[in-house]
Automatic annotation (TrEMBL), chain B:
One of its GO terms (biological process) is 'de novo' IMP biosynthetic process. Belongs to the PurS family. It is an enzyme of class 6 (ligase). Keywords: ATP-binding, Cytoplasm, Ligase, Nucleotide-binding, Purine biosynthesis. Its EC number is 6.3.5.3. Signal peptide: none annotated. One of its GO terms (molecular function) is ATP binding. Pathway: Purine metabolism; IMP biosynthesis via de novo pathway; 5-amino-1-(5-phospho-D-ribosyl)imidazole from N(2)-formyl-N(1)-(5-phospho-D-ribosyl)glycinamide: step 1/2. The gene is purS. NCBIfam families: phosphoribosylformylglycinamidine synthase subunit PurS, PRK05974.1. It catalyses: N(2)-formyl-N(1)-(5-phospho-beta-D-ribosyl)glycinamide + L-glutamine + ATP + H2O = 2-formamido-N(1)-(5-O-phospho-beta-D-ribosyl)acetamidine + L-glutamate + ADP + phosphate + H(+). This is Phosphoribosylformylglycinamidine synthase subunit PurS. It is found in: Cytoplasm. Part of the phosphoribosylformylglycinamidine synthase complex involved in the purines biosynthetic pathway. Catalyzes the ATP-dependent conversion of formylglycinamide ribonucleotide (FGAR) and glutamine to yield formylglycinamidine ribonucleotide (FGAM) and glutamate. The FGAM synthase complex is composed of three subunits. PurQ produces an ammonia molecule by converting glutamine to glutamate. PurL transfers the ammonia molecule to FGAR to form FGAM in an ATP-dependent manner.
UniProtKB/TrEMBL annotation, chain C:
This is Phosphoribosylformylglycinamidine synthase subunit PurQ. The keyword Cytoplasm applies. Coiled coil: none annotated. HAMAP family: PurQ. Part of the FGAM synthase complex composed of 1 PurL, 1 PurQ and 2 PurS subunits. Keywords: ATP-binding, Cytoplasm, Glutamine amidotransferase, Hydrolase, Ligase, Nucleotide-binding, Purine biosynthesis. One of its GO terms (biological process) is 'de novo' IMP biosynthetic process. Part of the phosphoribosylformylglycinamidine synthase complex involved in the purines biosynthetic pathway. Catalyzes the ATP-dependent conversion of formylglycinamide ribonucleotide (FGAR) and glutamine to yield formylglycinamidine ribonucleotide (FGAM) and glutamate. The FGAM synthase complex is composed of three subunits. PurQ produces an ammonia molecule by converting glutamine to glutamate. PurL transfers the ammonia molecule to FGAR to form FGAM in an ATP-dependent manner. It comes from Leekyejoonella antrihumi. It catalyses: L-glutamine + H2O = L-glutamate + NH4(+); N(2)-formyl-N(1)-(5-phospho-beta-D-ribosyl)glycinamide + L-glutamine + ATP + H2O = 2-formamido-N(1)-(5-O-phospho-beta-D-ribosyl)acetamidine + L-glutamate + ADP + phosphate + H(+). GO terms for molecular function: ATP binding; glutaminase activity; phosphoribosylformylglycinamidine synthase activity. Pfam families: GATase_5.
Length: 760, 86, 223
C-alpha cells in the first residue's frame, strides 16, 4: 500500500473530499458492483461517491436488496387483479407485506422470506434471525404477529452436513420463535440431495390488525422526526463491507467483522409490545423495520417512499461497539431495530412509551423539504444522494434465458420403465417403505421443538394440512395457512411445478373449510447468471401468475433467493408457495384425522396413472424423470368451493389432502391421527390408486346421515367423488389386498427421524 | 479500568446436560482423554479505576444474590482480573 | 373476584392466563413488573414466557422486579399464587417454592400434550380436582427439569406437597416425575405444564386446565 493511501486512514471521506479527489481508487469491485453500475452511480451523483455512499449503493443494488435479475419477471405479479375474493387489498406488493381485508374490520398481513445462506454458515443464528426478520416485516405494517411457519429443506438425511446444519436450524427457529411467543403452526421438512450445501430456510409470519391500525413505510411531513429504536447497533453482518475499512481507512490490513448476525428474541418480544403500544397511541406517522442493509435500507426506503428529503446525524446512533466506522454503521445488520417517523408534537408521548418498555430510542434526524437524503458524521456530510436512486431505481437486468438442454432427456425418462409391485405383499411393503421415507415420515422430532400453543388461539397445527389461528376472540374469525412446494415436480417442469405448489397449498387451506384469499411466495433458485436457471425462474413466475389469475387470488408479496447452488449444480427450482385463507368461525373447521368409527370415507377427485416425480419413484427406485401430474385449476377451485360449503354445512367430519406419497399415505395418516382404522375398497387399479400423486384429491369422512349433502355439494361444483370405505377397527384394511395394523404404520412412520438424527 | 471475575459452576451432584453433551461429542473429534466435562459461567464486572476490597465485597454479594442459584450452583471464585488477563 | 397476572418483559402466556381467568368467571387484572403494587387482587398468576430473556437463569432476574417485593410477603402471608412454567421458575428463584428448574436432559425445547396425575387437592389451586385424577395439559419448555436435594424431595413427598406428577413418560427428566409442587401452606403452587392453554373447546388438547382457576375462585371467596 502506498503512502498516499495510508494517509487516508485519518481522513473522513466526506462529500467535499469526494469532490476534490475525483480519481481516488474505490473498491467497487470488491463490494460486488459491476463497472457500469459504478459508472452509473458517478453519473447520478455527478461526482465519485464517498465511501459511505459507495457502501450504500453496493448493498442496496445487490441482488438481495434490488431484485435486479428478477424484477422484470416479478412485475407480472403486479398485472394480476389486486383483489382477493373478499375485496380490495389494503396494501399490496411493494410494501413490507401485503395486507388483506378479512372482514369485520379485521385485516391480516403475511409474508414468506428466505434466510438460506446465513443459515448454512451459522445454522442456529441464521435461522433465528430469519424468523426475527420476517416478524419485523409484519410488525412494520402495524400488525401484531400471531403465528409463524417454517418450510425447511436439507440435503440427504444421512449426510454428515445435514447432521451439522439441521439440529442448529431447527433449534434456531424454535429458540427465537418460542421466546417471541409466536405459535409455530406448520411448515415443511424436505430432504433431497440437491439441497446438499444449499439448505433452504424459509420463514413465514402472519399478523393481524384492525383496519385503522395499518401503517406504511414512508417519511412525509417536513420537520417530522426520524427515530431509531430497539437494540444498539453493532458489527453484525458487515463482513462484506470490511473491504472499505481495510482499503480506505486501515493501513494495517483488514479488520475482522462478522458476516453473520446474532439475534436477541427477548429484545424483539419487547419491541413487538412496544410497537403495538406506539401504534395504539397514534404516535407513529411511518414505520420501517431494519433488516438487510440496515440503516442504508431503512433511511433510503423511507425517504424514497415519502417526500424525498431526509437528514440524518449518523453519529447519534447508539453503538454496541464504539470502534464502528460510519460506513459500517450504515451497513450493520444488527437485529431488533425499527425506525419510526414521528411528528414533533408526539415525540414526548412516543418516548414515554419506549421508556416504559426499556427500549432505547434516539432521534437521528428529520424529514426535510429537499429531495436528498443527507447523512452527516460529526457535522460533516458523508452522504448526499437522491434516495430513490438508492432504494428503488437500482439496476434492472434482462438476464439471458434458455431452456436447459437436459430437460428433453429428463422428461423422456418416465416411470413407465420402472417395475411396479408384482404382488399384494409387495404393494404393502412399498406402502410402508414410502410411509417411513424421510419426506413422508413423522416430523415431530422437529415440530415438537416449537411452541404451537402460545397465545391460545391455535385451532390446528402440524401435522395437519394447514395451520389455523383465531384472529378475533369474540367472533372466532380466523385464518388458515399452508406452504407447499414439490421441487421434484418443478425440476421436471418449472411452469407446472409452480402451479402444483400453488394448487397443493390452496387445497390444503381448502380442506379446513377456509376460503383461500391470497398468495405469498418464496422463490428459491440457483444462479441467475445461468440462463437455464433464469428460464426455470421465468417459467415458474409465469406458471404462478397464470394460476393465480385462474384461481382469482393475488400474489401479495414474497421474496426471491438466487445463488442456491454449488459449483454448476443448482438446487431444484423451489418456488415455495404460501396460501392464506379465511374462516369466519374457526371452531367450524375440518381437521385431517379420522375421529369417529363407522363413518363413510369418500375420495373426492380422481386418480390418473401419474407416477412421474412421485415419492414412490424416489423412494422405491431413486428415480426422477418424466412429466409431473396434470394441473387442473378449475377442478381445484370447484373442489375448494365444495369443501367450504360442506364443512360450513356440517357435512364433513375430517378432510385430508392427497399429495406426497399418494392416497395410501393419506389413508395411513388419517388412521394414525386418532388410532381409528378403516376398511377401504379401492375404486381402480390398486397400485395407481395407492401411489399416484394426481392432484385435486381429498379424503373426507362424513358424519352419520350427511352423505347426501356432501354428494350434492360435489355435484354442484362438478367434483368427482367415490365412497371408498368406512372408518373403524385398529388396522388399515385394503380390501382383497392387504392390511396393516395402525401400530405398525405408526412404528414405521415415527422411527425415521429419531434414528437418523439421534441414532435411536 | 479494573475487572472482577466471578466463576459459577453447577454443583457436582447436579446433572449438567451441557457438559454431558460436550463430553459425548469430544471423542468424535478424536479427543478422548477426558473422563468428564462440566460447563460453568464466568461473569466479568468492570469498575472505574483499580478494584478495591469494597468492589470485591459487592461482587460477592452479587454472586450470591443473583448471579448464582444456591440450589444448583456454587460460586467457585470472586477475584480481580489481572492485567495479563489471568 | 380479582386475579392478577404479572407481565414481565418477555412474559408470553400472560394474555392466555388472563383469558383463562375470565373463562372461569373471574376478573383478570394485569399487573406490571415495574409497579410495586398488587392493586388489591385476591390471587396472582405468574405466567409463562421468557422473562428478561431468561438469560442469566430462568426466572432469576424477574425475581428482583419491584412487583415481587410486594408479591413475596403477600404469598408468605397466604395470598394464593400460581406459577406456570417460567412463573414456577420465578417462584423457585424467589424461594417461595423449593427446588430449581434446569435444562431438559436432551437440551431441546419440547412441546407435547402431557398427562399429569393430580396428587394433592388440598391447595388453593387444585381443590376442584378429584385426587388421583389424570388430566391432559400442554407441556412446553426447554428448562423444566425439577431438581432438589434428596432431603427436600423426601420432605415434599412426606408432607404431601407434590401436587402433580408426570404420567406415561417423564418429558424432561424431572426428579421423581415431579411436575408441580406447593409450599407448606398450600397457597403457592408452581408447575411446568400450562393449564391456561386447556380452557377452551377447540384450542388446546383438553379443558382440563379450567379447574385451576375455578379452584382459586372458590378459595379466594372463602378467605
Amino acid at each position: 500500500m502506498s503512502d498516499d493511501q495510508a494517509t487516508m486512514t485519518t481522513v473522513l471521506d466526506t462529500v467535499d473530499v469526494a469532490q476534490t479527489s475525483p480519481d481516488a481508487e474505490q473498491p467497487w469491485q470488491e463490494l460486488g458492483l459491476k463497472q457500469d453500475e459504478y459508472k452509473r452511480i458517478r453519473e447520478i451523483l455527478e461526482r465519485r461517491p464517498t465511501s459511505a455512499e459507495l457502501a450504500m449503493y453496493s448493498v442496496m443494488w445487490s441482488e438481495h436488496c434490488s431484485y435486479k435479475s428478477s424484477k422484470v419477471h416479478l412485475r407480472r405479479f403486479g398485472d394480476l387483479p389486486q383483489e382477493t375474493p373478499r375485496g380490495k387489498q389494503l396494501a399490496g406488493i411493494g410494501e413490507n407485506a401485503g395486507v388483506i381485508d378479512i372482514g369485520q374490520g379485521w385485516a391480516v398481513t403475511f409474508k414468506i422470506e428466505s434466510h438460506n445462506h446465513p443459515s448454512y454458515i451459522e445454522p442456529y443464528q441464521g435461522a433465528a434471525t430469519g424468523v426475527g426478520g420476517i416478524v419485523r416485516d409484519i410488525m412494520a405494517m402495524g400488525a401484531r404477529p400471531i403465528a409463524i411457519m417454517d418450510p425447511l429443506r436439507f440435503g440427504r438425511i444421512d449426510h454428515p452436513d445435514t447432521a451439522r446444519v439441521l439440529p442448529g436450524i431447527v433449534a434456531g427457529v424454535g429458540g427465537y420463535g418460542n421466546c417471541l411467543g409466536l405459535p409455530n403452526i406448520g411448515g415443511e421438512l424436505v430432504f433431497d440431495e440437491c439441497y446438499q450445501g444449499n439448505p433452504l430456510v424459509n420463514a413465514l409470519c402472519v399478523g393481524s390488525l384492525r383496519h385503522e391500525d395499518l401503517h406504511l413505510a414512508n417519511a412525509s411531513g417536513v420537520g417530522n422526526k426520524i427515530v431509531l429504536f430497539g437494540a444498539k447497533t453493532g458489527g453484525d453482518g458487515i463482513g462484506g463491507v470490511s473491504v472499505l475499512a481495510s482499503e480506505t481507512f486501515d493501513a494495517d490490513g483488514p479488520t475482522k467483522r462478522p458476516a453473520v448476525q446474532v439475534g436477541d428474541p427477548f429484545a424483539e418480544k419487547v419491541l413487538i409490545e412496544c410497537c403495538l403500544d406506539l401504534y395504539h397511541a397514534g404516535v407513529v406517522e411511518g414505520i420501517q423495520d431494519l433488516g438487510g442493509a440496515g440503516l442504508s435500507c431503512a433511511t433510503s426506503e423511507l425517504a424514497s417512499a415519502g417526500d424525498g428529503g431526509m437528514s440524518i446525524e449518523l453519529d447519534r446512533v447508539p453503538l454496541r461497539d464504539s470502534s464502528l466506522r460510519a460506513e459500517e454503521i450504515l451497513m450493520s445488520e444488527s437485529q431488533e431495530r425499527m425506525m419510526a417517523v414521528v411528528a414533533p408534537a408526539q415525540l414526548d408521548a412516543f418516548l414515554e412509551i419506549t421508556e416504559k418498555w426499556d427500549v432505547e430510542a434516539t432521534v437521528l434526524g428529520e424529514v426535510t423539504d429537499g429531495e436528498h437524503l443527507v447523512i452527516t458524521w460529526h457535522g460533516e456530510t458523508i452522504v448526499d444522494v437522491p434516495p430513490r436512486s438508492v432504494a428503488h431505481d437500482g439496476p434492472v437486468y434482462q438476464r439471458p434465458m434458455e431452456r436447459p438442454a437436459y430437460l428433453e432427456e429428463l422428461q423422456a425418462d418416465s416411470t413407465a420403465r420402472l417395475d411396479r409391485p408384482a404382488s399384494d405383499e409387495e404393494l404393502r411393503a412399498q406402502l410402508l417403505q414410502v410411509l417411513g421415507s424421510p419426506n413422508v415420515c413423522d416430523k415431530s422430532w422437529v415440530t415438537d421443538q416449537y411452541d404451537r400453543y402460545v397465545r391460545g388461539n391455535t385451532a390446528q397445527a402440524m401435522p395437519a394440512d394447514a395451520g389455523i389461528v383465531r384472529v378475533d376472540e369474540e367472533s372466532g374469525l380466523g385464518v388458515a395457512l399452508a406452504t407447499d412446494c414439490n421441487g421434484r415436480f418443478a425440476k421436471l417442469d418449472p411452469y407446472a411445478g409452480a402451479q402444483l405448489a400453488l394448487a397443493e397449498a390452496y387445497r390444503n387451506v381448502a380442506t379446513t373449510g377456509a376460503q383461500p384469499l391470497a398468495v405469498s411466495d418464496c422463490l428459491n433458485f440457483g444462479s441467475p447468471e445461468d440462463p437455464g436457471v433464469m428460464w426455470q425462474f421465468s417459467q415458474s413466475v409465469d406458471g404462478l401468475t397464470d394460476a393465480c389469475r385462474e384461481l382469482g387470488i393475488p400474489v401479495t408479496g414474497g421474496n426471491v433467493s438466487f445463488y442456491n447452488q454449488t459449483g454448476d449444480t443448482a438446487i431444484h427450482p423451489t418456488p415455495v408457495i404460501a396460501v392464506l385463507g379465511v374462516l369466519d368461525d374457526v371452531s367450524r373447521h375440518a381437521s385431517s384425522g379420522w375421529q369417529q368409527t363407522g363413518e363413510p370415507v369418500y375420495l373426492l377427485g380422481e386418480a390418473r396413472d401419474e407416477l412421474d416425480g412421485s415419492q414412490w419413484s424416489a423412494v422405491v427406485h431413486q428415480h426422477l424423470g418424466g412429466t409431473p401430474p396434470q394441473v387442473d385449476l378449475r377442478a381445484e377451485k370447484g373442489l375448494a368451493e365444495a369443501l367450504r360449503e360442506a364443512v360450513a354445512g356440517g357435512a364433513i367430519s375430517s378432510a385430508h389432502d392427497v399429495s406426497d406419497g399418494g392416497l395410501g399415505v393419506a389413508l395411513a395418516e388419517s388412521a394414525m391421527a386418532h388410532d381409528i382404522g378403516a376398511v377401504i375398497n379401492l375404486p381402480g387399479a390398486a397400485f395407481v390408486d395407492l401411489f399416484s400423486e394426481s392432484t385435486g384429491r381429498v379424503v373426507v369422512t362424513v358424519p352419520d346421515g350427511e352423505g347426501s349433502s356432501l354428494e350434492a355439494a360435489c355435484v354442484r361444483y362438478d367434483v368427482p367423488f367415490a365412497k371408498i370405505g368406512v372408518t373403524g377397527g385398529d388396522s388399515l384394511v385394503i380390501t382383497d389386498r392387504f392390511e396393516v395394523p395402525i401400530a405398525d404404520l405408526r412404528e414405521t412412520h415415527q422411527a425415521t427421524l429419531p434414528l437418523a438424527l439421534d441414532g435411536r | 479500568m479494573g475487572h472482577v471475575v466471578i466463576d459459577v459452576m453447577p454443583k457436582t451432584e447436579i446433572l449438567d446436560p451441557q457438559g454431558q453433551a460436550i463430553a459425548g461429542a469430544l471423542p468424535r473429534l478424536g479427543i478422548d482423554q477426558f473422563a468428564d466435562v462440566r460447563q460453568g459461567k464466568r461473569f466479568v464486572l468492570a469498575v472505574d479505576g483499580d478494584v478495591t476490597q469494597e468492589h470485591l465485597a459487592q461482587a460477592r454479594a452479587a454472586a450470591e444474590k443473583m448471579l448464582s442459584n444456591p440450589v444448583i450452583e456454587d460460586v467457585v471464585s470472586v477475584r480481580v482480573l489481572e492485567a495479563d488477563g489471568r | 373476584m380479582k386475579i392478577g397476572v404479572i407481565t414481565f418483559p418477555g412474559s408470553l402466556d400472560d394474555h392466555d392466563a388472563m383469558r383463562a381467568i375470565r373463562v372461569a368467571g373471574g376478573d383478570a387484572v394485569s399487573l406490571w413488573h415495574g409497579d410495586a403494587d398488587l392493586h388489591g387482587v385476591d390471587a396472582v398468576v405468574v405466567p409463562g414466557g421468557f422473562s428478561y430473556g431468561d438469560y442469566l437463569r430462568c426466572g432469576a432476574i424477574a425475581r428482583f422486579a419491584p412487583v415481587m417485593d410486594r408479591l413475596i410477603p403477600a404469598a408468605q402471608g397466604g395470598l394464593p399464587v400460581l406459577g406456570i412454567c417460567n412463573g414456577f421458575q420465578v417462584l423457585c428463584e424467589s424461594h417461595l417454592l423449593p427446588g430449581a428448574l434446569t435444562p431438559r436432559t436432551d437440551q431441546r425445547f419440547y412441546c407435547n400434550d402431557q398427562v399429569l396425575k393430580v396428587e394433592s387437592t388440598s391447595t388453593a389451586w387444585t381443590s376442584a380436582y378429584d385426587e388421583g385424577a389424570e388430566i391432559t395439559v400442554v407441556h412446553k419448555n426447554g428448562e423444566g427439569r425439577f431438581v432438589a436435594d434428596e432431603h427436600t424431595l423426601d420432605e415434599l413427598e412426606g408432607e404431601g406437597r407434590v401436587v402433580f406428577r408426570y404420567v406415561g413418560g417423564n418429558p424432561n427428566g424431572s426428579y421423581r416425575d415431579i411436575a408441580g409442587v406447593t409450599n407448606e401452606r398450600g397457597n403457592v403452587v408452581g408447575l411446568m405444564p400450562h393449564p391456561e392453554h386447556c380452557v377452551e373447546e377447540g384450542y388446546g388438547p383438553s379443558l382440563d386446565g379450567l379447574a385451576f382457576f375455578t379452584s382459586v375462585l372458590t378459595a379466594a371467596a372463602g378467605v
